[in-house]
Amino acid sequence: MTRHTVPLNEIRGGGPPKDGIPALVDPAFVSPANARELRPRELVLGVHLGGFSKAYPIRILNWHELVNDQIGGRPILVTWCPLCGSGVVYDPVMDGERVLFGVSGLLYQRNLLMYDRKTVSLWSQLGMQSAAGPLAGSTLPILPVGLTTWEDWKGRFPDTAVLSFRTGYNRDYNRDPYRDLPMNRQEAAAVFVGEAVKLYVLSELAKAEGVVEDVVGGKRLRLHYDRQERRLSIQSETEEAVKHFVAFFADLRAFYPTAERFQLPRAR
Question: Residues 100, 25: contact at Cβ < 8 Å?
């Protein structure tokens, strides 16, 4: 760890040891018809790439945090930090090689630090780069991901595959191990356009009760938050996908302290 981009004394342990939270590798999936354990209103992370769709129930992610997976033959890394309410999906291909990741058991600014099984470098989920180790300062591309209800995802992508509760691990997926922890769970989205980043508190977007038009990094965006489905939609004027993910606002602010925060115009 002689190479690092964050102060080493701010990397914290005290939780499970390395791999004490077991990451999943190419786990089993089922069809929606066989996903009987899922309740309509519970949350999933949804990934839609290359015409293929997959859903990852938060109930499973709370116990594993990382899923080394593939979609349509393309490697992806699905990450979830229960302490920050943050789901980010990465492209884990480095120099043409798929790299697997594990849970380090360490945190930086309360956020998940994962490690790659090739160099054992630590990677910050919300920081979107390697924080310490041989690859310190390196980045991985992020891929589109949606946080929404199972009912909503299944309705929009009826052919989706669903991460099976038969993971090979003995875990009580009906219990949320983080439910009683005191946390500020106000959700927000970090939206990235070029070098610009802007934070949108979801409850603020919900007050608009419709589409919000805004500009980030010189690009005009249209944002809509469906409070019932807990789904954020973002469209750009060029119809390109806009990089974004949802997390607790306090944790996003810790990683992006200078980012502008969206505010609804005050009524006159």
Answer: yes
pLDDT per residue over 215-231, tens digit each? 999 999 999 999 999 99
Q: Are residues 132 and 57 in the same domain?
A: yes
Pairing of strands 66-71, 24-25: parallel
Inter-residue contact 210 to 113 (CB < 8 Å): no
Which strand (E) or helix (H) includes residue 153? helix 150-156
Whether residue 47 is found in the same domain as residue 146: yes
In a domain, 175, yes or no: no
Q: Are 246 and 232 in contact (CB under 8 A)?
A: yes
Residues 114 and 228 in one domain: no
Question: Based on the structure, what is the number of domains in the chain?
Answer: 2
Query: Are residues 105 and 12 both part of a single domain?
Result: yes
Q: Name the residue with tokens 């996903």.
A: 35
Q: Is the pTM of this model over 0.85?
A: yes
Q: Domain for residue 168, yes or no?
A: no
Distance CA 6, CA 4 (A): 6
Range of the domain at 229: 187-261
pLDDT digits (tens, 9 = 90+) for 87-130: 999 999 999 999 999 999 999 999 999 999 999 999 999 999 99
Region of residue 51 (left: phi > 0; alpha: psi -120 to 50; beta: else): left
Residue 171 belongs to some domain of the structure? no
Tokens, residue 51: 């015409």
Distance of CA 123 to the CA centre of its chain: 14
Higher confidence at residue 99 or residue 237? 99
The neighbour count for residue 228, using CB atoms within 10 Å, is: 10
